Structure formats: structure tokens, C-alpha cells
Amino acid sequence: MKWVFWGSAGLIAYTYVGYACWLRLRMLWRSHPVMRGANTPTVSIVMIVRNEERVLETKLQNLLALDYPADRCQVIVVSDGSTDRTEAILHEYGCDPRLHVILNQLARGKASGLNDAVELASGEIVMFTDARQKIEPRS
Q1: Residue 128: is its pLDDT beyond 80?
Q2: Which residues pair with 79 in a beta bridge?
Q3: Cβ atoms within 10 A of the Cβ of 46, count?
Q4: What is the pTM of this model?
Q5: Which of 28, 102, 123, 137 is found 20 to 30 A from 13 (Cα to Cα)?
Q6: Measured between alpha carbons, how far is residue 79 from residues 6, 95, 101, 104, 127 in Å?
Q7: Closest Cα to residue 114, out of 46, 42, 45, 63?
């Protein structure tokens, strides 16, 4: 019975003191300096739209005016079987190299559109947005 007590006491002592000592020794043996520096990851902004002609132009202007380096930002818009002027608006903005447009003639649903967009996304970070929400330029 004594060995159970001392084993438990040793395990508790290791938990509170021994592990901290082990981490300190390991840090002294193999220290890894923190890499510091500016890092601007590439960002892919994905938006699925269907019959959003009322707000689409405002949203595209908002996305293209974000305070982020243009060469690090990619905007992917998937039109999911739109029957209004949505595709015409997307064609107007098609000359911007940051904007990638996928036109689905048949309505296949948001999940299918997201899958199509994510295949095209090349950013380290993928951000999903809707047509009605505005994004602050400095966020």
C-alpha cells in the first residue's frame, strides 16, 4: 500500500514540478527562435449569387475597394442560374484581373457553387461572404 501512495505522490509532484522542469531543460537544449516579420497572406473571397442585381454592383465595388494589396486578393463570384441582370453586371466587372466569375446556367444550389468556387480559390485564406453584407475597407 505504501508504494501506491508514493507512486501517486510522485505522479502529482511530476505534474506540478517535474513537467515544468522538463520543459525548461528541453527549451535550453533546443530553442527555436520566433520568426518575426511582415506576412501578408493571399486571400480568396468567395461569393455565391442568384438574382442579386439590386445589390451586386455595390457589393463588387465594396470588395474591389478593400484596403488589401490587389496582387494578394482574389474575388470569386459564382452565379447560380441567375435570371435577372446579375450575369450582365458580372460581365461589366470581368475586366478586373482580381475578379473570377463562374456562370452556372442551371440553379444547382449554394453548396455546389461553393464547391466550384473553392476549386478555383488559390488563396491561403478563403473568406465566404454574401451579396448583401458590406465589408469595412480596413478590416
Answers
A1: yes
A2: 49, 103
A3: 22
A4: 0.72
A5: 28
A6: 69, 17, 8, 6, 17
A7: 46
